[in-house]
TrEMBL record:
Keywords: Cell membrane, Membrane, Protein transport, Translocation, Transmembrane, Transmembrane helix, Transport. The gene is tatC. It holds the Pfam family TatC. This is Sec-independent protein translocase protein TatC. Belongs to the TatC family. The Tat system comprises two distinct complexes: a TatABC complex, containing multiple copies of TatA, TatB and TatC subunits, and a separate TatA complex, containing only TatA subunits. Substrates initially bind to the TatABC complex, which probably triggers association of the separate TatA complex to form the active translocon. The chain crosses the membrane at residues 36-58, 93-114, 126-152, 172-198, 210-229, 235-255. The keyword Chloroplast does not apply.
């Protein structure tokens, strides 16, 4: 006699069957896993492209050192001190470039995980998020590329001209690539604040009240990303971040004013309807 067993399957989370977007803890974990896997696959595929174009990136990041070499009569160099350093560095660059190239995918996955409860009419916020976040992220990366040579130049001035400035390859490129990606991510933060406001999770007044903290964080980030002796580079990073924060605050305040006005109209219409029925 064969005993039959009934297997109870866990229902999958679906916005189609769950229009309100209510999710339990396990649903959140499953959602995070799925979006993390998609983002990881996109980054891995983009790493292949990054590996191919890494030579061009090498040349771009090497340019400040070549300029210093001309100024100091050949006393500046990038050195690969290990047998595997060149290959390891190429993989590191491919990963960083993969993160940049795949930014539309992982930014979208981040947004959709952050806002799983959006109604269909509110899904346009995702397009607005991507339309603003991707250019800002890439713009931050470009700004990092622009500022990086200045930082290298300032730091090299502290070395006596009769001595050789020796840069370990992995440390040099790690500094440059980390700087560029960090500035790109910092430029996306104001967009996240706006989208949280549009989703009704954060009021514009709350964002405005934190302006002192925002300025301080921007200053600290810029100070850590640039050497203390290079005040110009620090301000080149800090000022755009602060401007973006206040632009995001203004957009949130305007949105709140319109949302409050629409809410008052709905309440007035409901009150009139109740009075009519009474």
């Amino acid at each position: 006699m064969t005993a039959s067993r009934s297997v109870t399957k866990r229902p999958k989370y679906s916005r189609k069957h769950n229009p309100e977007g209510a999710m339990g803890l396990m649903d959140h974990l499953v959602e995070f896993r799925n979006r993390f896997v998609i983002s990881t696959i996109a980054i891995v595929l983009a790493m292949v492209v990054g590996f191919v174009v890494s030579d061009a990136v090498f040349d771009l990041l090497r340019r400040p050192v070549e300029m210093l070499t001309e100024e100091r009569g050949g006393r500046v160099s990038i050195n690969f001190g290990n047998v595997t350093t060149a290959f390891d560095l190429r993989l590191q660059m491919a990963l960083t470039l993969g993160v940049v190239i795949a930014s539309p995918v992982w930014l979208y996955q981040f947004w959709m995980f952050l806002m799983p409860g959006l109604k269909k009419t509110e899904r346009r916020y995702a397009l607005g998020f991507l339309g603003a976040a991707i250019p800002l992220f890439l713009g931050g990366v470009v700004l990092g590329v622009v500022v990086m040579p200045r930082i290298v130049e300032v730091m090299a001035t502290f070395a006596p001209k009769q001595d050789t400035v020796w840069y370990e390859a992995k440390m040099y490129y790690s500094f440059a690539l980390t700087l560029c990606v960090a500035v790109g991510i910092a430029f996306v933060v104001p967009v996240v604040l706006v989208m949280l406001n549009f989703a009704g999770l954060l009021r514009g007044k709350t964002i405005l009240k934190a302006w002192r903290m925002a300025v301080m964080v921007s200053a600290l980030f810029s100070a850590m990303a640039t050497p203390s002796a290079d005040v110009l580079s620090m301000f080149l990073l800090m000022i755009p971040m602060i401007l973006l924060y206040f632009i995001a605050t203004g957009i949130a305040l305007v949105h709140d004013r319109g949302a409050d006005r629409r809410q008052r109209k709905r309440e007035a219409a409901l009150e009139d309807e109740l009075n009519t029925q009474a």
